[in-house]
């Protein structure tokens, strides 16, 4: 597709359930990023992949959160045993990886709005 | 670790008026600076960026921002706004050594009224 796509766009779940959020990056984009945006806040970095390798997961809040990108394309962010405080917009972004470049622009998807009841 | 402060959560203005959205950052290392815009029901889009060189950077739709190192600021300005500029604007910073990790401010909702 032309841009980053995320699914589902909206997810309502009950506390204690597991959820899986999907990100399909722009074709050819090697790097993929996950952010979380709570209501009234800016996006907060969660994790980052180059190809299938998770380069930095320092932003994942606890071990209930995990992400994978097994074939270096589509990525899944999984939240186990969801809690109400996990309610937020989860944003995915992708970029090219140009070695030596000062900056690789991140293109953001529309986000998945997660509500935990 | 770096942080970004956007002092104004909402800025209402009339069409054709000038606007300034304020952004201050804090970091112990050299940084890159960005403004992102989110139009209603859309994803975040990069509006403009400062990497190096001239401290004044411009976007294609008339916005500009100036990097002020001594004041650790990167305020966004436009001399005359349009209704279509209504959106939420986010200031962001990344360390030069780890430029993939963006730290965002809380955002400023710009509402342009007729």
Comma- or semicolon-separated keywords:
heterodimer, A: 117 residues, mainly beta, 7-stranded mixed sheet, 4-stranded antiparallel sheet, 11 strands, 0% helix, 47% strand, B: 114 residues, 6-stranded mixed sheet, 12 strands, 53% strand, globular
Summarize the structure in words:
The complex is a heterodimer of chains A (117) and B (114). Chain A has 117 residues and is mainly beta. Chain A contains no helices and eleven strands. In chain A, the strands form two sheets. In chain A, strands 2, 4, 5, 6, 9, 10 and 11 form a seven-stranded mixed beta sheet that branches. In chain A, strands 1-3-8-7 form a four-stranded antiparallel beta sheet, with no helix packed on it. Chain A is globular. By secondary structure, chain B is mostly beta strands. Chain B is globular. The model of chain B has no long low-confidence stretch (mean pLDDT 92). At the A-B interface, strand 4, strand 5 and strand 9 of A face strand 6 and strand 11 of B.
Q: What order do the helices and strands come in, and which of them pair?
A:
The complex is a heterodimer of chains A (117) and B (114).
Chain A: E1 5-7, E2 10-13, E3 19-24, E4 31-37, E5 44-50, E6 53-56, E7 65-68, E8 75-79, E9 88-95, E10 107-108, E11 112-116
Parallel strand pairs in A: 2-11
Antiparallel strand pairs in A: 1-3, 3-8, 4-5, 4-9, 5-6, 7-8, 9-10, 9-11
Chain B: E1 3-5, E2 10-14, E3 19-21, E4 24-26, E5 31-38, E6 44-50, E7 56-58, E8 64-68, E9 73-78, E10 87-95, E11 103-104, E12 108-113
Parallel strand pairs in B: 2-12
Antiparallel strand pairs in B: 1-4, 3-9, 5-6, 5-10, 7-8, 8-9, 10-11, 10-12
| Average predicted confidence as pLDDT of chain A | 94
User: What is the count of β-strands of chain B?
Assistant: 12
Tell me, what's the shape of chain A?
A: globular
Helix content of chain B: under 10%
Largest sheet of chain B: 6 strands, mixed
| Alpha-carbon Rg of chain B, integer | 14 Å
Order of helices and strands of chain A: EEEEEEEEEEE
Whole-Å distance between the termini of chain A? 33 Å
Annotation field: number of helices of chain B: 0
Strand content of chain B: over 45%
Low-confidence stretches of chain B: none
What integer value in Å does the Rg of chain A equal?
14 Å
Overall mean confidence score, pLDDT of chain B: 92
Q: Which chains share the greatest interface? A: A-B, 27 and 27 residues
- One letter per element, helices H and strands E, the order of chain B comes to EEEEEEEEEEEE
């Amino acid at each position: 597709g032309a841009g980053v796509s995320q699914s589902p766009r909206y997810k309502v779940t009950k506390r204690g359930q597991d959820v899986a959020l999907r990100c399909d990056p722009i074709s050819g984009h090697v790097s993929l990023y996950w952010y979380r945006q709570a209501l009234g806040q800016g996006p907060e970095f969660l994790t980052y992949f180059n190809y299938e390798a998770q380069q930095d997961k320092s932003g994942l809040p606890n071990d209930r959160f995990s992400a994978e990108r097994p074939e270096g394309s589509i990525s899944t962010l999984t939240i186990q045993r969801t809690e109400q405080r996990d309610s937020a917009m989860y944003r995915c972004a992708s970029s090219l990886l140009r070695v030596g470049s000062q900056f690789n622009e991140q293109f953001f998807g529309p986000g998945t709005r997660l509500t935990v009841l | 670790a770096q942080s970004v402060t956007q002092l104004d959560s909402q800025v209402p203005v009339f069409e054709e008026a000038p606007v300034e959205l304020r952004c201050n950052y804090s970091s112990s290392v050299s940084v890159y600076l960005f403004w992102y815009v989110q139009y209603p029901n859309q994803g975040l889009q990069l509006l403009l960026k400062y990497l190096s060189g001239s401290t004044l950077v411009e976007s294609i739709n008339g916005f500009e921002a100036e990097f002020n190192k001594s004041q650790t600021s990167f305020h966004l300005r436009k001399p005359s706004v349009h209704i279509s500029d209504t959106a939420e604007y986010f200031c962001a910073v990344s360390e030069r050594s780890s430029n993939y990790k963006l730290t965002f401010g809380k955002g400023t909702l710009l509402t342009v009224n007729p």
